[in-house]
Amino acid sequence: MAQIIDGKAISAQIREEVRIRAEKLKEQGITVTLAVIQVGEDPASSVYVRNKKKACEACGLASLSYELPADTPEEKLLELIRELNERPDVNGILVQLPLPEGMDEEKVLDEIAPEKDVDGFHPMNVGCLSIGKPGFVSCTPAGVIELLHRSGISISGKECVVVGRSNIVGKPMAMLLLRENGTVTVCHSRTKDLPEVTRRADILVVAVGKPKMITAEYVKEGAVVIDVGIHRDPDNHLCGDVDFENVSPKCSAITPVPGGVGPMTIAMLMKNVVESVER
Ligand code: NDP
């Protein structure tokens, strides 16, 4: 029987740790504060923003909310970010993606001061990760590492295969596994004979964005499988990039969807916010 990695329980642990750290800072007169900016009214983004604000509240962090209309000029958004960069009472700044069409996402994210970039998307933080310096790390891949550590799964010396090379998941995931001394292979849409490559993995991390694409033929007997994907299946149930029913009998450990990687992303965001002060 595969060990089911319980992201809900592990994320609750991390949030509780953040709450205790935030409480200590409060005793020193510091209220840890996250500024959340949303441009436009994308319904999925509104849900994410609401969840992030709720998580702040539960962890004893303050949140400042900026809801800008979709037709906000880019320069106005950049001005707001510059203002928040300067404010000593704001510790973390988050711009909810995607931005409305016509806005230059890269330019906007680059404007956030690296020391307040709690999403870990700024080129400075990405560079720090790749050369092994401290900095903020993208929350989802950082959450995967926490899941592995806290489930007693060692990474050092293991064959690690990451499917997907996006800037927010695949690439930082690969860098983190390398930092943990894994032997890392990164796959993408041009990879030849994907099942042959993924079957080499002791630890397989899937962030491909295709519902239930990874079936048993992609997985080695006894592998650890981490599923980053989130989708709705035709019956409106949540599912991942991995076909859980088909794959789990073959694994030593696997994350479910929902309840695996998903809850870790916000927990790691909260951790980054509290660390922005402690640094
Ligand atoms: P992207 O669409 O940005 O990246 C997908 C990657 O998969 C690309 O690198 C692409 O390759 C690769 N790919 C696509 N098709 C294939 C294929 N047939 N074979 C091999 N590789 C392929 O997705 P994200 O990284 O942003 O997200 C991945 C998944 O994770 C999504 O389901 C998303 O919803 C979920 N997600 C979940 C989060 C969470 O909190 N749990 C947070 C972020 C994302 P190429 O580069 O060549 O195009």
Give the distance, in angstroms, between the N- and C-terminal Cα atoms. Answer: 42 Å
Total strand segments: 11
What is the chain-wise order of helices and strands? EHEHEHEHHHEHEHEEEEHEH
What does the largest sheet look like? Answer: 6 strands, parallel
- Ligand set: NADPH dihydro-nicotinamide-adenine-dinucleotide phosphate
CATH class of the largest domain: Alpha Beta
Widest β-sheet, arrangement of strands: 1-11-8-7-5-6
Number of structural units classed as domains: 2
For the record, what is the CATH homologous superfamily label of the largest domain? Answer: NAD(P)-binding Rossmann-like Domain
Which overall shape is indicated by the principal axes computed on the Cα atoms?
globular
Task: Calculate the mean pLDDT score and round it.
Answer: 97
CATH architectural name of the largest domain = 3-Layer(aba) Sandwich
Low-confidence spans: pLDDT under 50, at least 5 residues?
Answer: none
CATH topology description of the largest domain: Rossmann fold
| Helical amount | 40-55%
Radius of gyration from the CA trace?
19 Å
Q: From the helix content, strand content and strand pairing, which structural class follows?
A: alpha/beta
Strand content: 15-25%
